[in-house]
Design brief:
The protein is 36% helix and 25% strand. The chain contains 17 helices and 19 strands. Helix 9 crosses helix 11 and helix 12 crosses helix 13.
């Protein structure tokens, strides 16, 4: 007789049998679950939270500490790295997701996940690489918008494993594969029979729109008249005859072909795209334009005509220093915000005067916060020269004076606080804008100089990136109210938009 049989009394034998049976059931259930694992992920930590990536994207795990800095890149790209002869970009996921980044000592190694998305290889820096975890695909649940600080569009799901909840990142979305797919879909819109010269040659496209305008207008009017006549005959056949009532003669609404031509000419000569964002101003300006052009012809003949038409469209102090009145108006419309860091996006920053004025207003409005202002433009020369911009004496003596310092040569420049708050970047906002969640978007007149499809995409980006208490300021003669679910707020001469 064994010791175990001696210790098992008659009263405990049944319970022992039940326990063994239950344990066997658990083992069988675990074995079945293990057999049905169909998804593996590499798990890691960022700022104390658990994340995961589909193992199919992970090429290898590495440690490195020496990265070569590349100028004029997004802030989360901390450099490039030589991986056995392949030069790959290194992205710090903490900066990408606006999470705190610990200070590193010189030469200290960092944890890298080397990823491959299609033909592109990237390295991402994380706090800690954990392990490979296998789960069932059916157990992955869609993310809740309030679940995490990360923009929900970068998350493919959440899953629980080993009593830990992992946030599964959408690597293809983060590294912009979706944008490539979208561009491929755009190409389908061109008819297969379209001449290649018109598809690839912008001059041919412009000519095809400008030259036959009057002929197209006549055809359109003829088609409209024919369509109306057919519709009228169809209705007459269906309606009962009333001989005692005389038929009402339909009044035709004249089509203003000149207005349609002006819209095309603004696009051709002024690089200005009319949409819901600015159509109200364009219609008002067109009526003024007709009066100004009496005896000269309404249509725009060249770039000078387009500039003359648009001269009153551009916002106050475009490409210039702000007046005290305008700076005060911006100050008054900025919302209360006690956050430690205020994130601001200024796409289309131009030569930098606007950006510096905005940075000074922000420093005055939020003296206890750290301001981070992302200023972007597609003019490389402007972006390169902006950090070295000097201030004229008459401007330095005005409302900007508290933020002005003298250089060794005696010229006026901005103090270190203002300079440190601004990051000038060469970037086209029509591409991926991988920025943290934003408190203030300042994009005056930018929407009107990009095409309608890009306008809609950028407005959607505004909606996704702006915080709940954030505001969006666009051009003086632009509106968001007709294009999206934004609320409108006006203080003094400035109108701002926020999430409703």
């Amino acid at each position: 007789m064994t010791i175990e049989s001696i210790l098992i009394t008659e009263d405990t034998a049944d319970s022992k049998t039940d326990l063994i049976a239950k344990t066997q059931e658990d083992l069988n259930a675990a074995r079945v679950k293990q057999e049905t694992i169909d998804f593996k992920m590499v798990t890691f930590c960022l700022s104390g939270k658990d994340y995961a990536i589909d193992i199919m994207y992970v090429k290898e795990i590495a440690k490195a500490g020496q990265f070569t800095f590349v100028p004029n890149t997004m802030p989360f790209v901390i450099g490039v790295y030589n991986l056995r002869g392949d030069i790959i970009p290194i992205i710090d996921m903490r900066i990408f997701f606006n999470a705190p980044v610990p200070e590193y000592k010189e030469g200290e190694l960092r944890n890298l996940l080397i990823l491959k998305v299609e033909e592109q290889t990237f390295g991402i820096v994380v706090d800690k690489i954990d392990k490979v975890v296998g789960v069932q695909k059916s157990s992955i649940q869609p993310p809740h918008p309030l679940f995490t600080d990360i923009n929900v569009k970068y998350i493919s799901g959440v899953v629980e494993a080993n009593k830990r909840l992992y946030i599964l990142l959408d690597i293809e979305r983060i590294f912009n594969k979706s944008t490539v797919d979208a561009e491929e879909k755009k190409a389908v819109k061109y008819p297969q029979s379209a001449p290649m010269m018109q598809m690839n040659n912008p001059v041919a496209q412009i000519s095809s729109k400008v030259e036959p305008k009057k002929e197209q207008a006549a055809q359109n009017n003829s088609a409209q008249t024919s369509s109306k006549a057919s519709a009228k005959e169809e209705v007459t056949e269906k309606m009962p005859e009333e001989p005692s009532v005389s038929p009402v003669k339909e009044e035709k609404v004249p089509v203003d072909n000149d207005y349609q031509f002006v819209l095309e000419e603004l696009k051709t000569f002024g690089k200005f795209n009319v949409s819901e964002v600015n159509e109200e101003w364009v219609k008002y300006r067109y009526e003024e334009w007709k009066k100004e052009r009496t005896g000269k012809g309404v249509q725009l003949q060249n770039e000078n005509d387009a500039q003359e038409f648009l001269k009153s469209f551009w916002s106050k102090h475009t490409d210039g220093w702000w007046s005290k009145e305008y700076a005060d108006a911006v100050y008054n419309i900025l919302p209360d915000n006690s956050a430690k860091q205020i994130v601001v996006w200024n796409p289309g920053c131009g030569k930098g005067m606007e950006t510096y004025c905005l940075a000074c207003v922000l420093a005055k409005r939020y003296p206890e916060s750290k301001v981070r202002l992302y200023a972007q433009d597609i003019d490389l020369l402007n972006v390169s020269n902006a950090p070295m911009l000097s201030i004229p004496q008459e401007v330095a003596d005005g409302w900007l004076s508290p933020f002005v310092a003298k250089t060794a040569s005696g010229s006026n420049t901005f103090n270190q606080q203002i300079k440190d708050s601004i990051l000038f970047e060469y970037h086209d906002c029509q591409h991926t804008n991988a920025l943290p969640m934003i408190d203030v978007i300042f994009a005056r007149d930018l929407l009107s100089v990009i095409n309608t499809e890009a306008q809609n995409s950028l407005i959607k980006d505004f909606d996704e990136k702006i915080k709940g208490n954030g505001i969006i300021i666009i051009g003086d003669n632009e509106k968001l109210s007709g294009t999206s679910e934004f609320g409108e707020k006006t203080v003094g001469s400035i109108t701002a938009y926020n999430k409703q």
